[in-house]
Amino acid sequence: MINSFLLIGQSNMAGRGSLGEVEPIENKDILMFRSNTWITAKEPLHTDKPELAGVGLGMSFAETLQKKYGKKIGLIPCAFGGTSLDEWKKDGALYSNAVSAALEAQKNSCLKGILWHQGENDADMLETAESYKDRFLTFIDPLFKDLGVSNMPVVLGELGEYLVSFGGCTYSHIVNAQLSQLARQEKYLELVSVKGLTDRGDFLHFNSESLREFGRRYAEAWELCSKNLGICLE
């Protein structure tokens, strides 16, 4: 059985780390869903912007779980760089693509969680930052229904601490506060810290080493959340 995970959000989920900066992860029991079929996973997982695609957090997330539990891990990459939370609304192209891919993948896998990293595009205006929590719940509730799941772990990642140096993300601390409120409010949500993680020099994207560590933290958060929900790998 393939234990699958839906990867959604914007560029830091899609992965913008340089491929040559870390050792590639090669594991025949880590798969990715591409062109409606499961194939052996390798980076870059995402093809949203091929000229920018690189190392992401998905592979180290999968490797952590695969090595610990000895199960097949499948990744469904549907993140897209530069997108706002509102662009992920129900019936939009991003939402529809993610639902379509996840439903197709579930024909021969069991969906075990959703990995989300997004918010940079919502951190440049006070209004979108302060309303992030409510708008996220408006997005995630129908997503559960359309995927045919309930009690599903959703792992959220904080925005990078380095964003304070990036002119377009003035309110990143407010988005992080909203993410923290979400995780405290909903049992199925777990928040991942970015403490100590660094950017690749552009004050916007995590570097490769940080993304490897971020993925491991996502795996730990998924484990914690899944135990609280009584969910296990198959």
Task: Explain this structure.
- The radius of gyration is 16 Å and the shape is globular.
- The protein has helices at 11-14, 58-69, 93-105, 126-130, 132-147, 172-185, 208-229, and strands at 2-9, 30-34, 37-40, 72-77, 110-117, 154-157, 189-192.
- A seven-stranded mixed beta sheet has the order 3-2-4-1-5-6-7, with helices on both faces.
- The chain has a single domain, classed as SGNH hydrolase (Rossmann fold, 3-Layer(aba) Sandwich).
- Helix 6 links the parallel strand 6 (154-157) and strand 7 (189-192).
- Helix 2 (58-69) packs across helix 7.
- The N and C termini lie close together (6 Å).
- The chain is 37% helix and 17% strand.
What structural keywords apply?
single chain, seven-stranded mixed β-sheet, 234 residues, alpha/beta, Rossmann fold
- Strands, count: 7
How many individual domains?
Answer: 1
Output the CATH topology.
Rossmann fold
Rg, Cα atoms, Å: 16 Å
Structural class, judged by helices and strands?
alpha/beta
Could you name the CATH class? Alpha Beta
- DSSP summary: helix tally: 7
Poorly predicted residue ranges: none
Distance between the termini: 6 Å
Give the proportion of residues in helices. Answer: 25-40%
Major sheet summary line: 7 strands, mixed
CATH superfamily: SGNH hydrolase
SSE pattern, N- to C-terminal: EHEEHEHEHHEHEH
Strand content range: 15-25%
